[in-house]
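R.M. (postdoc): so does anyone remember the format we settled on? I'll just put the structure tokens first.
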């Protein structure tokens, strides 16, 4: 009986020890689980923050890509526009050059025709040519007006200001005839203005602001006026408008 009692005591003690150990293990397991759950929660929250940060970064990158694409589209459009403008300018220059070449050929042909007519008149010893040049009217003669119209027609067109000598009827009449012919030919004029001169020029004076801003058609008009027998000279002064031509009709002989 004593042995049985002792065995029961030892079994009870072992059971108590086992229970205590089990409780300790359960406590440690629960604590470790809580720490693990807390760690997992922290990792999950950190992952969510990272995902939001990545989404924000992706949105910024997408926005930058859209802006870059828009800039590229705008640049391509500008490039196409500039290429188109360049082609139009090139074509306009080619057209102007062709008109200038045609006008130059017309001037040369007219000069040759005048030489032939003058030669024929000298050989026939007639006075018909002299009668044409001695017209009593002021301003441009009928022959000069016809020649001017023929020579201007194939040439370039431009913008001109016309001045005449104040209180000089011949100068004013010539300027108005010139303005009428140029306007009919497609030139842009602003009428005829009178100007006082202490020493009025002779013939026509072609005035420009500077050599750099002188229009290309200035030399064309100079050759045309010389061809029809008008004394013509050139002048540069910054008081005149840039990229435009001023024609001063001075005193006209005869």
């Amino acid at each position: 009986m004593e042995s049985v009692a002792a065995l029961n005591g030892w079994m009870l003690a072992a059971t108590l020890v086992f229970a205590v150990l089990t409780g300790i293990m359960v406590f440690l397991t629960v604590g470790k689980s809580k720490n693990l759950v807390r760690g997992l929660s922290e990792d999950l929250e950190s992952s969510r923050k990272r995902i939001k940060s990545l989404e924000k970064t992706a949105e910024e990158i997408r926005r930058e890509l859209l802006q870059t694409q828009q800039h590229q589209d705008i640049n391509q459009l500008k490039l196409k526009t500039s290429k188109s403008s360049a082609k139009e300018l090139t074509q306009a220059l080619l057209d102007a050059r062709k008109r200038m070449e045609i006008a130059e050929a017309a001037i040369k042909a007219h000069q040759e025709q005048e030489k032939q007519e003058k030669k024929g008149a000298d050989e026939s010893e007639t006075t018909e040519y002299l009668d044409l040049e001695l017209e009593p009217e002021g301003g441009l003669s009928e022959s000069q007006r016809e020649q001017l119209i023929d020579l201007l027609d194939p040439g370039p067109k431009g913008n001109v200001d016309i001045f005449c000598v104040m209180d000089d009827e011949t100068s004013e009449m010539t300027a108005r005839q010139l303005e009428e012919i140029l306007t009919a030919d497609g030139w842009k004029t602003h009428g005829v203005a009178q100007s006082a001169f202490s020493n009025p020029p002779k013939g026509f004076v072609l005035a420009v602001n500077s050599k750099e801003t002188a229009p290309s058609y200035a030399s064309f008009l100079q050759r045309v006026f010389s061809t029809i027998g008008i004394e013509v000279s050139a002048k540069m002064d910054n008081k005149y408008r840039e990229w435009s031509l001023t024609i001063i009709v001075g005193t006209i002989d005869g």
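R.M.: ...and that's the designed sequence above, right after the tokens. Also worth knowing: The helical segments are 2-124, 128-133, 142-152, 169-184, 217-227. The mean pLDDT is 81.
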